[in-house]
């Protein structure tokens, strides 16, 4: 899968998770979906920030503002993810936060898929997109599983903070009995 296909696949998974949340029959089922949402979106945003956005800055003329806007959207979504991650079971704020997150994510996905991804596909070779896709898939395996909205969002600081956050997240996941894969 090339990088753009992989990112779009991630987007479809997240959209399905929002549908699963609303279809869940019980509080524990909804909470399980929230935990998967937190994990998947945390991984996805990290690899985009580390690998995709720097490439876009490099190869796309006038991409600075677009990427800055995407990074700001990531921070907003990560704050909502953090609030969701900190909720206890049966917290009445959960559905409100999921609705807010869904709105934030849907707008972000439309912008990425409608603007950024087509522009990248136009200027990056298929071979490079294929290689980036392999790198993204590998990076997702070791990316943080929890939101870190105050962590750096751009290399090189992200490259140093990401592995530390990922190790912490995996330890925390183990201690809490949560799957981290």
Topology (elements, then pairings):
Layout: H1 3-23, H2 27-59, H3 64-86, H4 94-123, H5 126-142, H6 157-175
Helix pairs in contact: 1-2, 1-4, 1-5, 2-3, 2-5, 3-4
- Sum up the overall morphology in one term: elongated
Oligomer: single chain
Category from helices, strands and their pairing: mainly alpha
Distance between the termini: 20 Å
Summarize the biggest pleated sheet. Answer: none
Along the chain, the helix and strand elements come as HHHHHH
Please give a structural write-up.
The chain is elongated. It is built from six helices and no strands. Helix 1 packs antiparallel against helix 4 and helix 1 packs across helix 5. The chain is 79% helix and 0% strand. It has 181 residues and is mainly α.
Question: What's this model, at a glance?
Answer:
The protein has 181 residues and is mostly helical.
Q: What structural keywords apply?
A:
181 residues; mainly alpha
């Amino acid at each position: 899968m090339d990088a753009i296909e992989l990112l779009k696949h991630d987007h479809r998974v997240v959209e399905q998770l929002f549908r699963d949340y609303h279809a869940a029959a019980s509080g524990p089922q909804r909470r399980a979906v929230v935990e998967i949402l937190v994990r998947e979106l945390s991984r996805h945003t990290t690899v985009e920030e580390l690998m995709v956005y720097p490439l876009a800055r490099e190869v796309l003329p006038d991409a600075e503002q677009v990427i800055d806007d995407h990074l700001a959207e990531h921070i907003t979504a990560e704050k909502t993810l953090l609030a969701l991650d900190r909720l206890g079971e049966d917290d009445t704020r959960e559905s409100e936060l999921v609705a807010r997150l869904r709105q934030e994510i849907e707008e972000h996905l439309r912008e990425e898929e409608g603007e950024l991804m087509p522009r990248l596909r136009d200027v990056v070779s298929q071979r490079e997109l294929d290689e980036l896709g392999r790198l993204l898939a590998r990076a997702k395996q070791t990316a943080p599983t929890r939101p870190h909205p105050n962590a750096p969002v751009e290399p090189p600081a992200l490259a140093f903070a990401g592995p530390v956050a990922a190790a912490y997240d995996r330890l925390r996941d183990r201690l809490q009995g949560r799957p981290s894969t």
